[in-house]
Amino acid sequence: MSTQASTQLHTMSHLDWLEAEAIYIMREVAAECARPAMLFSGGKDSIVMLRLAEKAFRPGKFPFPLVHIDTEHNFPEVIEFRDWKAKQLGEELIVRSLEGSIKKGTIRLPHPDASRNAFQSVTLLETQEEFGFDALMGGARRDEEKARAKERIFSFRDGFGQWDPKSQRPELWDLYNTRVHPGEHMRVFPISNWTELDVWQYIEREKLELPNIYYAHEREIIERNGLLVPVTEMTQPKAGETVTTRTVRFRTVGDITCTCPVASTAANPIEIIAETAVTDITERGATRMDDQTSEASMERRKKEGYF
Amino acid sequence: MNAITEALKLGTQEHGVLRFITAGSVDDGKSTLIGRLLFESKGIFADQLAAISKAKNKRTAGDTIDFSLLTDGLEAEREQGITIDVAYRYFATPVRKFIVADTPGHEQYTRNMVTGASTADVAIVLVDITRVAFEKGEEGLKATLLAQTKRHSAIAGKLGIPAILFAVNKMDLVDFDQEKFIATEKAVRELAVTVGVQEALVLPISALTGDNVVTASPKTPWYTGQPLLPILENIPSRADRAEAAHKVGFRFPVQLVARHDGHKADDFRGYMGRVEGGSVKVGDTVVVHPSGQNAVVSRIVFLNEDLPEALLGQCVTLVLDRDVDVSRGDQIVSSVDTVSHTPVRALTADICWLDNEPLNPARKYWIKQTTRQTQAKIKSVNQVLDIHTLLHGESTKTVQMNDIAQIELVLAQPIVADLYTECRATGSFILIDSATNQTVAAGMIVAKQ
C-alpha cells in the first residue's frame, strides 16, 4: 500500500457500495418526505433494510415508523420475529390486517382460503391514506422479477396508488425528485440494486438474525406442479396427493398459501451463499405459486398499487 | 463455475461494481447482447429461460432463444417488440458485480437512455453493421452511421461517460467482412472524437451467435483486441477514475442534521451526508457554505463507531467542534480552496430536455443540485446541438424533448457547485416543473459566473 492511500481512490467492495447507496436513499427520504414509513414484514430483505436504517440513523431513532400489512396467512415464526425485532430496536411498528379491510367490505375474497397476496394492495393503500404517508420504503429488488427490473428507485404513485410504467419520471444520477401533490405518494426501494446473493452476503457479513424457517429444517410437504407445498391449515393435501417429510428451507417468505420452500440442507448463511451462487432457478420461480399465472402478473398487480 | 462460486462465496474478494448501459438504435441488438452476457455468465436462471422460450411474443425463429424478452419486462414492450424503459439487470463474475441498464433505442424514449447513462461507468453503443451505409470512394470504403448512433454517442459524451465500447454487431450477417468493419471503425472513431469521448474501443461482435462476446471468435482472426466480457471486467470504473473528484477537494453536501438530546449530558449534533469529493480526517478545518464559517471536524461517526477518516463515496455523520449554522442543502467543504468553492448564483450548463412540454424561458423551474433545491430562471438558450452534423446550431428560444442544448441560468439562492467534468456529484443538477412536478431536464455545469 502506498502512502497516497487517502488521496488515491479506494475501490469500494460491492457490499460497501450497495450499503452506501441504500443509506443515501433512506436519508433522502427522511429529509425530503413529510411522512415516510418503512415496510417491515420480518422477511430477509426487510431485515436487511432495518440494518441499513440503523446505519443511516443511529444513534438516533428512525425518523419513520415500521409498517406491516398482515395477511394473517403468515408463518408464525416470522410474525414472532417481526414483533421481537421491532421491540429490540425500540422502533414503532404499525400493523394493519387484511381482516380489517375484509370487515369493511373493501376486500372480498373469492373464497375464504384464497391467496391473500394480491389483496395486500387494498390494505396497504388504506393504511397509507389513514396515516397520510407520502413515502413508503420497501425492500423490493430489481432482480426479483421483470416488472420490478423496470422500476425507478423513487417510484411515483398517483392518487389511486397506481404505477404507470409507461411514464416514469426520469431518474438522473442520485438526484431524486421526491415532489408529489397531496394524495399522491412515492414508493422507494433502497435495495433495488441488490441481488439475492448480495442480500445473503450482507446477512453473513453483518451477522443478522433471521426467522429460523430460512434455514434447513424438516417439514411436511406435498409435491405439486414441481413445487414443494408446505402442509398447513390453509394448504391441505388434495385427493391422491401424498405428504412426505423433507429437509427444506424458504428462500422467500410471503403469504402461507402461495409460498413454497426448496429442498436444501443449508443451515447457515455461508451454506446458503454457496447454494445461491450455483442455483439455476430464480428466487420467486422456485417458490411462488402466484407469480406465474401470466407473463405480466406482477406488472398488473403493481399497476393496482401492489408493492 | 467453481472459480465463480469460490469468489462470490463470502464477498471477501473485493471486486467492486461496474455500471454500464447499452445504447444504439432500435433493433441493433441491445437486449440480445445483454441476454447473451447474462446467459454466458450464468446470470439467467432455468425458469427464466423456460418462460421466455414459451412466451407468446417471441421474435426469433425455431429453437433460437429470444434473449430480448428477458429485459423487455413490460406488457407493452413485449406486445410492440421494443424497449420502452430502462431495465436493470445484474450479473457477477469472479472479478466484478455488474449493473446493466438496458436503455431504449427509439428516439421518443431518449430521456430513458439519459436516465441509464447518468450513472454509467461505461456505455456500449451497438452499431448494426447491416444498417451502416457504405460507399466506395477513392480511399476505399466509406461508412455513414445512423443518426441515432450519433445521438447516443453525443449523450454519452455529454454525460461524461469516460469509455464507450462501440460493438459493431450482426457481423455474422455480413460474413465477418473485415473491410466493412474497418470502414465502420473509422467512422466510429471520428464520431468519438467529435463528441468528446475520452476512450473509445471498437470491436466486431455477433450478439446472436456469441462471437467475441465472452471468448475470441475464430471468424475474426484479424481482430486483435479482447472480447467484450474481459474488457468489461478490466476497464476502470468511474470510481477508479475519480481523480477529478479528488482534485476539487473535500465536498460534503449535508443531507440531514442529526440531533439527539439523549440522557447523557452531552447533546449530539451531527451532519449526515456522503463524501462527494476528496476525503476528510478528524482535525481537518472545513468551511460551511453558504454561511462561510470555519470549523474543525471533531468526530466522524458511522453507526456506533468513530472513524479517523471518511473517503469518497462513504456515507457518514460529521461532528464539528463549534456551533455553526448548518442545515440540509448546505455544503461542508475543504478549507483549502484548490478549486473555488465560493457559492454562485449564475451558471452555464449543457442540458438534455426530457419533457413533452418545451422549455419555456418565461417560467421558473425548481433546480435540485446535490441536496439543495432552489428556483432557477433560464436567462438564455445559447445553442441547440444539431444531431446530424453534431455542430452547435444557432441561438434559439425553444428547446424540445430530447434536445441537447447549452443554457444560462440564474438561481434564487447561491449554490456550491463544480464543473461537471471536475466533480460529477456537485456539477450535475435536475430541473423540475413546479406545476407538474415532472423532472424536465438533466443538467451538467460547464461554467460558473
What can you see in these coordinates?
Chain A has 307 residues and is α/β, with parallel strands linked by helices. Chain A has eight helices and ten strands. Helices cover 31% and strands 15% of the residues of chain A. In chain A, the strands form two sheets. Chain A has a six-stranded mixed β-sheet, sandwiched between helices. A four-stranded antiparallel β-sheet of chain A has the order 8-7-9-10, with no helix packed on it. In chain A, helix 1 crosses helix 2 (44-57). Chain A is globular. In chain B, helix 7 crosses helix 8 (178-195). The radius of gyration of chain B is 24 Å and the shape is globular. Chain B is 20% helix and 36% strand. Chain B has helices at 2-8, 30-40, 46-53, 68-71, 75-80, 110-118, 147-158, 178-195, 228-234, 243-247, 424-427; strands spanning 17-24, 87-92, 97-102, 122-128, 133-137, 140-144, 163-169, 199-204, 251-260, 268-274, 280-281, 285-289, 293-302, 305-307, 309-310, 315-320, 331-334, 344-353, 364-369, 372-386, 391-392, 404-415, 428-433, 439-448. Chains A and B meet through helix 1, helix 2, helix 6 and helix 7 of A and helix 1, helix 3, helix 5, strand 2 and helix 6 of B.
